[in-house]
Fold this protein.
Amino acid sequence: MSMKNSAILGEALISMRSTGLRTFLTMLGIIIGVGSVVLMLAIGRGVEISVRDSIASQGANLFIILSGSTTASGIRTGSGGAATLTVGDAQELAGLPGVVAVSPNVAGISQIVNEGQNWSTQVRGATADFFIIRDWTVSAGALFDDGAERAAAPVAVIGATVAENLFLSDEDPVGRTIRIKNIPFQVVGVLEKKGQSVDGQDQDDTIVVPLTTAQRRLFGSPFPGAVRVIFVQAASEEAMKGLDEKIREVLRLRHRLGENQDDDFTVRDLTAIGQTIQESTQAIALLLGSIAAISLVVGGIGIMNIMLVSVTERTREIGVRKAIGARERDILLQFLIESVILSLGGGLIGLLLGGGLSMLIGSIFNLPTEVSLFSVTLSFVVAAGIGVFFGYYPARQAARLQPIEALRYQ
Amino acid sequence: MSQPIIQVSRVDKSYGTMAPVLRQVSMTVMPGEFLAIMGPSGSGKSTFMNILGCLDRADRGEYVLGGEDTTDLTPDRAADLRNRMLGFVFQGFNLLQRRSALDNVALPMICAGLPRSQWDPRARELLDKVGLSAKYHSRPNQLSGGQQQRVAIARALAMEPPVILADEPTGNLDSVSSSEIMRIIRSLNADQGITTILVTHEPDIAAQAKRLVKFKDGRIVYDGPVTEAGMSA
């Protein structure tokens, strides 16, 4: 003989409805806490996705090998200052196990002219594999192929930013002739827009021409086949492990470097940049997380406080209920359910608020924010836990009231 | 001869170091009796009622209610016993303010775990019986004192208890409502045979009972028929 749980739930709901504003204010701490947890997780996820995407846009599983510094009259020129890498190096690296694509590049800043318009941008000479490594396709026209590379054809694929600046919006750049360093090139394709790179550079402000064309007609070179950069793409993240060491071995051997000589090239790994960004995101997430945790604890104490007030206010009601046969469990559950509803309700509102805010922030900052099932589950479990933890003490106080003392209470 | 419904033997009760409130109180009530308990304030009658209602416990002595010894009841067992055996009518009505008359009457049945399909018709029937057919959904603050006390009586009857304990049931009522409430209480005793114990300080209320018990200084100083002599004892 004891109260049905559904009946206890009904009792709890009725008494909460009668104190609407107070109920809402009590929930506020939980709303803020859960809201910021959800927001933090959504933004963290968004940053992670966007960092991953932007690294992938520069090429997934990529090593960038820069030619080394040279010293002339005591002045060191820095990375890329000396063309110590060659097409031959690239061909040999292509033979390493785990390597799927290799593209040697030269690059330089040039003034580009199209009739009345001109624009200064980076001109890159690259093999056709460059587009595979960058996972880059055209929005109009076509990419150049190995044939154009062999023939050192005067063709160019231009980035979206360059297209915007050299051509009118209603003009089709494909098939038109532009001049790079006064040499005519035919535009064969316009690259798809990629946006900013991890370090904030506009990836679309570029022109790509065949490597051979660039070497012979645009930049010249201290010796045939010299390049500034070699991109090496590995088959997978696993294949990247140890590959940088093998690359160094091959290049040191080819460059005939002695035991005590420094490398005349630098091997870079973009995932390291991504890791740095993710680490700083995690630090921010941790900060937000601790603020959220504090807010949840404060919210929980708020619930406890209000529940204690509620127990005092309803002392007489508790006495009546006990007099007519309510058991301790009935009273305990009634108050416990009330505090769990308070915290769960706060959790739900916080979830909606955090989700809404993360969508808003996502659309303002163009971040792919995402409210995951994990954060939904987490916020509900935490909210329910707070309700039980901070509601138990007041509920027990209520359940243990002596009926005559409760009835005497004015 | 049937068993007594209430048997109190040599009960003592004191609070802290103050003078004892009840001293060696004994009383036997047979089913169907109608008792009035009187006495000046501080005489111990309220404490005695609390013990009869299983709301408080005697320090020493024995209290058997409906054949069950109440001396060592756990709080939950006491709650069950109150629910099954006793109906309470208080001076201040003690209705839940935010609930309808119907919900208030249903409360003991809800506490007993009855489903709505059982308590709803029963609560309506009880409200009909006390003449509040039109007030099912009224809240206590929409009802007069007399009407509130009738809701409380309906609530006390919900579990069909064999005993009704009424503590100054007319104390807060005007004379018209007061006589209406007393008419209902009398009929419960006369028509349904419910054992009724009521505490009052008004002689004309006490006069409607069949047996009078007077308290003074924690002892029963009179126990017998309702007479002039008993009133002034």
